[in-house]
Design goal:
Layout lengths: L11 E5 L3 H13 L3 E5 L2 H7 L6 E6 L7 H10 L6 E5 L4 H9 L4 E4 L4 H32 L4 H11 L4 H8 L3 H15 L4 H13 L6
Length: 214
């Protein structure tokens, strides 16, 4: 790994390319534009050093000795690492680049790199990563709050958010309407919600935060 300026407090642009000149030129370009950069000569070196808590994006050479760019992209997917990928390709590698796009790459850029396009693609990729992390944080927060509930409270909540009245909930669970009211109040208190609408939204977000757009 090459020494480059970076901070865990801001998104990092990770560069994986076996050509030292390419790594230096991209690093210089990005640092000149205020980006935090970390460069590696191989996919293996990147995997050894990367921590999934680090946000940003990955600029990845399609053809690398050892683990290829496509192989690294596949490995990231296997590990559940959603870091957005921008592929760098050489002449005549469009078919492979298209395959990378099919596997989820944000963009592919042919060498020699167009600097303006690369910077634009990085802005897009970093934005996508920030949004993905926001949604994941929301999902974990909602799921954590739901984890405070007892089994019976979750049963009551599931029927309540399905729009069923207390009497119906009581009948289906074999308990009294008064007990349903008690459980419902506890659910609202534990989840820190003030209305049925808030309860429904929280329950939905816990399982569907990745579908939110705002």
């Amino acid at each position: 790994m090459e020494r480059t300026a970076h901070s865990d407090a801001q998104p990092t642009v990770f560069v994986v390319d076996d050509d030292p000149a390419t790594r230096r030129s991209i690093t210089w370009l990005l640092e000149s534009n205020g980006r935090s950069v970390q460069a590696f000569e191989s996919g293996e070196a990147f995997l050894d050093a990367y921590s999934r808590e680090r946000g940003g994006c990955l600029i990845l050479d399609l053809r690398l000795p050892g683990m290829s760019g496509l192989a690294l992209q596949e490995e990231l997917c296997r590990r559940g690492i959603g870091l957005p990928v921008i592929m760098l390709t050489g002449f005549g590698e469009v078919a492979l680049a298209v395959e990378a796009l099919r596997r989820g790459a944000v963009d592919f850029i042919e060498k020699p790199v167009d600097e303006a396009r690369l910077l634009g693609s990085i802005d897009t990729a970093v934005g996508l990563d920030a949004e993905r992390r926001r949604r994941e944080c929301l999902r974990r927060s909602c799921a954590g709050r739901l984890g405070r509930l007892t089994r019976r409270e979750r049963e009551v909540m599931a029927l309540v958010v399905a729009g069923k009245a207390n009497k119906v909930v009581a009948y289906e669970l074999g308990i009294s309407p008064k007990t349903v009211e008690v459980h419902r109040a506890r659910v609202m208190s534990k989840l820190e919600v003030q209305s049925l609408a808030e309860l429904v939204r929280l329950e939905w977000q816990a399982g569907h935060a990745d579908q939110l757009t705002a």
